[in-house]
Specification:
single chain; 219 residues; alpha/beta; seven-stranded parallel sheet; globular
Amino acid sequence: MDNNILRPYIIGETAYNHEGDIKYLYKMIDDIAELKLNAIKFHMLLNPESYMQKKHPLIEESKKWTFSENQWSEIINYSNKKGLDIIVLCDDVESIEYILENNINVIAIELHATGLNDYFLLNAMSGFGKQIILGVGGSTIDEIAYATDFLKSKGKNNILLMYGFQSYPTQYTDINLSKMLKIRDLFKLPIGYADHTAFDDPNNEIISCMAAMMGINVL
């Protein structure tokens, strides 16, 4: 995942669109592979009670959207066989530990912007030897600095910042693409663009193309 290459590196994100329907997730994998994208990104949550308060009104619903470790192993193996690089956005420490302890074949672990000041997630991620991605959409400079300084103090320098307006669907007028370049220059780290405009937005394709034209090659 090199931000200096000319050809864009394109990631297809699945997020929680599957809502716990594993057959639908496999269909998404097939579709992303058919599009010949470079990578697929999964949101992984193994223990909802580690992610939100036990009395949270959505905790029971979130449990329906999670898969077991065995299911994730099969999902990731299937994606690898489809020729896709695997990126996992880990929402809990348990998912990071699962990847590390089982030597799961992923090229990058990502931390959502809401976890930039989470000591436990950052500390667990510091044990990963490959690419670390930090979501920075909607984050303050202090939050980004805390996360990057923490990881660098642990000897981690292979850090990519991923910028994206944290709303779905995002109105293109809210995105402020130039902010990516400011963040990149301030932290002296490569940056990518995560688009959240709706699939049927007439500006959907041009927004990502504009990011690529600005030299942002991880999309």
